Amino acid sequence: MNDGWDIFKIYRLIRKKNQYPHLVGLMDITFMEILEQKGIISREVLYQKALDHLKSDGVPDTEENRQDYVEALTDAYFANSFGPVEIESYINLARKRDRAQTLSMVVNRDQATSMEIYKALREFCEIPMGEVYISPEEAIGIRVALISRFISNQLPFISLAKNHVTIRDMDLILQRVLWSRRRPGRLGGKAAGMILAYKILLPLLQKHDPELEEYVRVPDTWYLNSGVFSEFLDRNNLYLFHTFKYKTREEIEREFLHVEEKFKYATFAPEVIDDFRKILEEMGEHPIIIRSSSLLEDSFGLAFSGKYLSVFLTNQGNLETRLSHFIRGLKRVFTSTFGPDPILYRMDHGLLDFDERMAMVVQKVVGRRWGDYFFPFVSGVLFSRNVYAWNPKIKKEEGLGRLVLGLGTRAVDRVGSDYPRMVPFSHPQLRPEATAAQIKKYSQKQVDVLNLKTGQMETVDFRTLKDQVQHPDLFYAVSVDRDGHLAPPMFKTQDWSAGEPCLTFENFLEKTAFVGLARKILSKIESAYGRPVDIEFAWDENKFYLLQCRSLSTRKELERIKIPENISRDRILFTTRSGLANATVANLEYIVYVNPRAYDLLPTFEEKMEIAGVVNVLNKVLAEKRYALMGPGRWGSNDINLGVKVTYADINKAKLLVEVAFAREGYTPEVSYGTHFFQDLVEADIEIVPLFPDDPGVILNEPFLLNSDNLLARLAPEVKDCEKVVRVIHVPSACGGEYLQLYLDADSQRGIGFFAPREEE
User: Fold this and answer.
1) Is the predicted pLDDT of residue 671 greater than 60, yes or no?
2) In angstroms, rounded to a whole number, what is the distance separating the alpha carbons of residues 185 and 224?
3) Model confidence at 432: pLDDT above 60
4) pLDDT interval class at 666 (50, 70, 90)
5) Mean pLDDT, to the nearest integer, of 355-369?
6) CB burial class (10 A; 0-12, 13-18, 19+) of residue 68?
7) Sign of the alpha-carbon dihedral angle for 485, 486, 490, 493
8) 530-573 pLDDT tens trace
9) Which residues contact residue 760 at a Cβ distance below 8 angstroms, ignoring those fewer than 6 apart?
10) C-alpha span between 586 and 568 (Å, rounded)
11) 483, exposed or middle or buried, with CB in 10 Å at 0-12, 13-18, 19+?
12) What's the DSSP call for residue 731?
């Protein structure tokens, strides 16, 4: 045909093609497409050349002969236009197209089992990836089907994930999935968010950012899909618990203890237990965390923050001991599906009828062993939007970090008299505190760790921990107070034992890649999501571990609020000058006031917990009213002495929460931004206001709160014995028909609650 062609190259190509005789036709089509795309020869020219050769050879012009000459010419042009590696890639492209077609048919067949789909997926992924891929159109359809079948069927997630999670990503993920042999299932929201964020940062088919490639990791992870949960309910005749959510709040709270008891004695199938053993054998004696990943969890706009349980396991000892603890932990997470808090949360957000199923993420805990303790160096939460801008210099769009030493539990929960480091990434060295004394007061003092000896998570005083653990990275975490001057060590070998150390993370923010990396991560993921995000992370051995990612629930920001002027002092209930957003809350009819001084005098834990119960009762009584909740220090704190220990379910009907901190009583409202508690308030549209009555320029009309008629006994006679601590005021009755109105202006850091006639809403 052409004397310039290398006959050996053509022969070698035909031999390769003959390895896959059933794909010869598909290869010919593929070769012709590539020749056209590369501008080597068009289809029309090649067909004309085939006819010319047909005639010159004196061969009859039949359809069959014409096709033979076209295929021969295609092979000749292709073999002489590309090298061996390229030819191998294009042959594999034809193989991929064939396997992709099979995979597409299987994954879109309703009756196909998970194992049938996985087998087809494996056959596709066994073909070397190479540099040539199937078309985006072919790939997207398969990605969507795989993601919706195995990860999540939430449409907002699928529409985003299909652009980042590839077919081969799905293969790698499913190799780490334990699924039920009897029931279909998905990986759930928490797993979905982590997988998606990681693939946004380090995509399989695109060039990696060198900095992200160097620093970003995910912990060693296994996934238990929701089918394991469904099979567990079926096996133990527990499926009727899916109707549990339709009971009253009181019934759910009362009967939840029986749910825990039934789950405790329920069993898994022997083959499932063998699967658990496999996971534990692979993980080894390394601490693990079992994290909830329900189907609704971390969905866009509904975070379910802290609603379901996560369980830390030190995972030490022989395999059977570790297996026993593992199964016990799984059951505890399963049980949390039916807890009062998540059920009420679903009810509030119109999700009660959704058939919620629980999946699991089983991860190695990030960190290292130090003596009997195990913990990461730094943990925390990152936010791509910073609504807590206490200084006009702060750029909200550059985000905020909330950092702690040790396990991240102290960063996401409201804990004791302790404070994480809040870092505005536009100005990382900027702090709300000014003096060394203030910085020390509002710093972290306790560290959450895993005690490998006792098998428990423990809280250790930082001063005790630093004496017991010679952690090489403390240089990055501490500042040292010498004679009232607080400063970080200048070099690692510096002896700072003579001063008093304080956790400030100054060197961590200045001398590591963390701040720039956090900005880049937040920007990249928010850009992909098209909305603000929050990310849980751990940092250890100079690596950033991605633990969780979800869309960040934020209130719609109002334009600047004009604070009403010239309001007479007797009509003002309170003013405030800290921790504000732009917001108004109109026409509050009731105020529930937990008197901080009276609460502080309660002598026992039980009496203080009783106050939380009273708040719960009033939340139900006033559910259809607009009411404000005011009281001591840190609402929702796990320290009963620093605030009323309520959960979301106890306060979800309030419109306003005011945290009152009298200095002499030691209550200090924490900037709770970023905690699970704060996210609950945002999603429920409850405004939160910190109030420091002893600060100059701040007003609190305490006589009004203490002397107005107390309606507690009339509204909730069953808790009337608590009326010395809890007061319920009907504002119009006490104020001549007026209501409580709230105006907050973030720009001027001013807020006011005052009495005025009913406003148009």
Assistant:
1) no
2) 9
3) yes
4) very low
5) 91
6) middle
7) positive
8) 988 989 999 999 999 999 998 876 655 556 778 888 899 999 99
9) none
10) 19
11) exposed
12) H
Angle 276-278-284 from CA coordinates, rounded to 5°? 100
User: What is the pLDDT at residue 679?
Assistant: 66
User: How would you class 4 by CB atoms within 10 Å of its CB: exposed for 0-12, middle for 13-18, buried for 19 or more?
Assistant: exposed
Closest C-alpha to 171, from 143, 197, 152: 143
> Residue 315 in contact with residue 363, Cβ under 8 Å?
no
3-state helix/strand/coil string of 42-56: CHHHHHHHHHHHHHH
Could you tell me the two tokens for 507?
């060197």
Q: Is 543 helix (H, G, I), strand (E, B) or coil?
A: strand
Residue 663's CB: how many other CB atoms inside 10 A? 11
Rg of the chain over CA atoms, in angstroms? Answer: 32
- With a pLDDT cut of 90, the percent of the chain lying above it is 51
Whole-angstrom distance, CA of residue 593 vs CA of residue 141: 56
Distance between CA 300 and CA 160 in Å, rounded? 11
Chain-centre distance for alpha carbon 87: 44
Give the integer Cα–Cα distance in Å for 459 and 432: 26
Q: What is the pLDDT of residue 683?
A: 61
For the chain, the first-to-last Cα distance in angstroms comes to 85
The whole-number average pLDDT for the span 223-244 is 85
Name the DSSP letter for residue 631. E
Residue 635's nearest CA partner among 587, 583, 686 is 686
Nearest to 331 by CA among 365, 370, 305, 292: 292
Give the pair of three-digit tokens for residue 334: 């399963």
Partners of 16 in the beta sheet? none
The mean pLDDT value for 602-606 works out to: 91
pTM confidence score:
0.82
CA–CA distance, 456 with 450 (Å, rounded to integer): 6
Please, what's the largest Cα pairwise distance for the chain? Answer: 115
Give the span between the Cα atoms of 215 and 195, in whole angstroms.
Answer: 17
Q: Which residues pair with 700 in a beta bridge?
A: 574
Residues of the chain with pLDDT > 70, as a percent, come to: 92
CA distance 118 to 107: 9
Q: What's 547-606 look like in SS3?
A: EEEEECCCCCCCCCCCCCCCCCHHHEEEEECCCCCCEEEEEECEEEEECHHHHHHCCCHH
Where is average pLDDT lowest: 256-260, 283-287, 318-322, 356-360? 256-260
Which pLDDT belongs to residue 650?
86
Over residues 8-20, the pLDDT tens digits come to 999 999 999 999 9
H or E element, residue 743 = strand 739-745
What does the alpha-carbon distance between residue 74 and residue 647 come to, in Å, rounded to a whole number?
71
- Can you tell me the distance from the alpha carbon of 721 to that of 472, in angstroms, rounded to the nearest whole number? 55
In contact, 230 and 180? CB cutoff 8 Å? yes
Given a cut of 90, whether residue 500 has pLDDT beyond it is no
Q: Is 416 exposed, middle or buried (0-12, 13-18, 19+ CB in 10 A)?
A: middle
pLDDT attached to residue 2 = 55
As given in the structure block, the two tokens for residue 494 are 């510096």
